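Margin note: ligand = S-adenosylmethionine.
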Amino acid sequence: MDATSEGRKPGVVSLDPRGRTILSSLPPLSVYVHVPWCVRKCPYCDFNSHELAGDIPEDTYLDALAADLEQALPQIWGRQVISVFIGGGTPSLLSERAIDRLLALLRAYLNLLPDAEITLEANPGTLEAGRYASYAASGVNRISLGIQSFDDVALKALGRIHDGRQARAAIESAQTAVGRVNLDLMFALPGQTLQGCMDDLDQAMSFGTDHLSVYHLTLEPNTVFAKYPPQLPDDDLSAAMQEDIAGRLDTGGWKRYEISAYAQPGQQCRHNVNYWEFGDYLGIGPGAHGKLSFHDRILRQARLRNPRSWMEKAMRRDGSHIAEQKEIPWRELGFEFMLNALRLKAGVPRTYYMERTGQPLLAVAGAMERATALGLLDPDPVALRATDFGWRFLNDLLAEFLP
Ligand SMILES: C[S@@+](CC[C@H](N)C(=O)[O-])C[C@H]1O[C@@H](n2cnc3c(N)ncnc32)[C@H](O)[C@@H]1O
Ligand SMILES: C[S@@+](CC[C@H](N)C(=O)[O-])C[C@H]1O[C@@H](n2cnc3c(N)ncnc32)[C@H](O)[C@@H]1O
Ligand code: SF4
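Resulting structure:
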């Protein structure tokens, strides 16, 4: 059975002898690979990224990824993989040879769909044009570029290593070499005006890429920006930016399908959509997290965050590179499902709830009734979807589903 048909198969839920429900089919599976190094740590970033001291130990790293993947295989035996996302950190710091070895490894071990989406994240200023063609030859068919802004002053304030000219050059070479390109932008930047924000967006749109991710810059705990906050646009200005961004992108043909994601028709990121549809994903590499379903339970996993410790432990092949693995408690499944699914503008088919949590929708009937009465949840009998109002006040909507 292929993963796509697995995902669509109507879920029959039955009670097991211990009185718990079981999943009759497993959802589509994606694979995430983490590359934890960056040239310089950005002051706003709380992802698992570490400034490089010297060269990347590529061969050791690839050996450790292979060991991590090999140990995870029994958990995904026989399943097809619909997408791979190589994220970071800065994966484009890896040489062409290392990416080629990584993709060969993934193909050798995994049952990859022939048209699997394979995304690689790249930072402008970390590679010359030639590398994109080589990544594409190795099998990468989508590039996600961390542009953030085209404005040199804003880029400096964000501590980025690239300037606007390098951002434009990177987009052009990525587009020449690889079919699908996403640009990551951020708004509500230090000192940014509404005009500056829209100028950035216009430049981003002018390349005609099929996907744009536009994130509201947030002050994350334990970052330099949290400790020394820069002067940021106030809430009213940020809200005006968000509204104008969505409006202008819609006019240009990029439909907003998730809080921060905009795509041309049919160009949604399959990998991220699978996360939001409560699909499964295996995460390998330091700090990578995963969600894996079995017929009688759903697990969350997290790998050790420190790259050296993760490498060392993965090579021991005794499971000690896994920092945490736990079953999602039955009473939290409803909230976890909604936390993901309601981010999607179109929501998800109501049948997914039973198929992917193993619980009848009746288990959250009370919360759904309250949310519908408040005008936050759409009463659509086919889709589970927030109303426009509920989408704007997503936290209020989700609060109804808290265990
Ligand atoms: C983890 S980064 C990896 C991509 C790549 N290293 C880069 O920075 O260009 C993925 C994206 O998350 C977004 N991001 C990171 N920190 C953020 C923050 N504090 N607020 C909003 N977006 C953030 C940025 O747009 C970034 O491109
Ligand atoms: C913020 S998103 C940006 C995606 C991009 N906008 C796109 O459409 O392709 C990607 C980042 O999320 C993080 N990430 C995604 N999946 C992950 C996982 N399973 N484990 C750990 N980090 C993950 C990584 O830091 C990665 O750089
Ligand atoms: S380059 Fe990307 S991953 Fe690295 S520190 Fe900056 S935002 Fe974080």
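The CA atoms of residues 295 and 363 lie 19 Å apart.
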